Amino acid sequence: MGTAHNIIRATTGFSGRRSAVLIFVIATALSSAAQQVSLQLDPAKTTVRFTLDAALHTVHGTFQAKHGTLQFDPASAQVSGEIVVDTKSGQTGNGMRDRKMHNEVLESDRYPEITFRPVRIEGSVANQGKSSVTIHGMFSIHGMEQEITIPAEVDMSADHWAATAHFTVPYAKWGLKNPSTLFLRVSDSVEVEVVAGGSVVKHTASSAQ
């Protein structure tokens, strides 16, 4: 409150109309900076697709999101919370291949969730419209947590958000089994695309405490 008071006092030397406009702009900016934003994930609006290169063909598959909530502070670019994906939902359209993926690679019964916990956002997220940002955070799969950087396109509105992200998971480097056989070789990494969406809830700094 002291900062706002000092800024407003500094405008008293301007003419009446100019001063009023300046005060309005400053007050709006301070109000926006003080808001904490909650991004609620809607699993029905979220899809996780993956692509795995193989010697003879490319494998395409999907996972389903379970839930997620992110707390975002536009002023500091700090973000927290997590997005959770159902490991057992993974499928490629081939029953034998999917059983091998779940039993030998992901061990889905033992590790039923894949999670991403963002830490900070590099770049500005506009209150309205699209923004290109980089999200830094921790990616957990198969009981192991790895630091990862994800470029993303974010589209914000007053009460909804949407985002698209592409990144690479070097699963073999992270300790997961490569399912290659003598006759079929597959890549040590998998390409992931996430299309997500949900609702926006804004809180003032005082209500968030």
Q: How would you concisely characterize the structure shown here?
A:
This protein has helices at 2-10, 16-33, 95-106, 205-208, and strands at residues 35-41, 47-53, 58-73, 78-91, 113-122, 129-141, 144-156, 160-169, 190-204. With 209 residues, the protein is an alpha+beta fold. The radius of gyration is 22 Å and the shape is elongated.
What does it look like?
There is one protein chain. The chain is an alpha+beta fold and 209 residues long. It folds into two domains: 1-33, no CATH class; 36-208, Beta Barrel (Lipocalin), CATH 2.40.128. It is 21% helix and 50% strand. It has helices spanning 2-10, 16-33, 95-106, 205-208, and strands at residues 35-41, 47-53, 58-73, 78-91, 113-122, 129-141, 144-156, 160-169, 190-204. Strands 1, 2, 3, 4, 5, 6, 7, 8 and 9 form a nine-stranded antiparallel beta sheet that branches. The radius of gyration is 22 Å and the shape is elongated. It starts with a helix and ends with a helix. Residues 27-34 have low confidence and may be disordered.
Please, how many domains?
2
Helix count equals: 4
Number of strands: 9
CATH topology of the largest domain, what is it called?
Lipocalin
Biggest sheet features:
9 strands, antiparallel
Overall form: elongated
What structural class do you assign from the helix and strand content? alpha+beta
Uncertain stretches of 5 or more adjacent residues: 27-34
The CATH C-level name of the largest domain is Mainly Beta
CATH superfamily of the largest domain: Lipid/polyisoprenoid-binding, YceI-like
